[in-house]
Amino acid sequence: MNFDKLIDHFKLHKQEFYFQFNSHPNYPSALAFSDTLNFLGLKNDAYELDKEYWDELPDEFMALVNNSFL
Q1: Handedness of CA 60, 63, 37, 14 (dihedral sign)
Q2: Is the distance from CB of 30 to CB of 64 less than 8 angstroms?
Q3: H or E element in which residue 20 lies
Q4: Buried b / exposed e across 34-53, counting CB within 10 Å, b at 16+?
Q5: pLDDT tens for residues 14-51?
Q6: Contact between 40 and 17 (Cβ < 8 Å)
Q7: Are 8 and 69 in contact (CB under 8 A)?
Q8: CA 37, chain centre distance (Å)
Q9: Beta-strand (E) ranges in 1-70?
Q10: pTM here?
Q11: How much is the pLDDT for 68?
Q12: To bridge 46 with a disulfide, which of 7, 34, 68, 70 should be the other Cys (CB 3.0-4.6 Å)?
């Protein structure tokens, strides 16, 4: 998965991001991604939601679907 646009958008250190993400014990996973963002100081929450709860999401959010960001 290519995270370059996300890294650039949030002005993260690219090498550090990939090092932390790739060395996470749960790599590759949403948990590894979320933990990496937290480690780099970018507060976030990760949830797995059934479609029936999608209307409870905030107006702006990021989703990981089929290995792509939405």
Answers
A1: negative
A2: yes
A3: helix 14-22
A4: bbbbeeeeeeeeeeeeeeee
A5: 999 999 999 999 998 888 999 999 999 999 988 888 98
A6: yes
A7: no
A8: 7
A9: 64-65, 68-69
A10: 0.77
A11: 73
A12: 34
Largest CA distance in the chain: 38
Q: What are the start-end ranges of the H helices in the chain? A: 4-9, 14-22, 30-39
Residue in the block written with tokens 């976030």 = 44
Q: What average pLDDT does range 53-66 have in this prediction?
A: 85
Total residue length of the chain: 70
Q: Which amino acid is at 52?
A: E
Distance CA 69, CA 59 (A): 16
* pLDDT attached to residue 36: 97
Structure tokens at 29: 């996973």
Kindly give the interhelix angle for 30-39 and 14-22, rounded to the nearest 10 degrees. Answer: 140
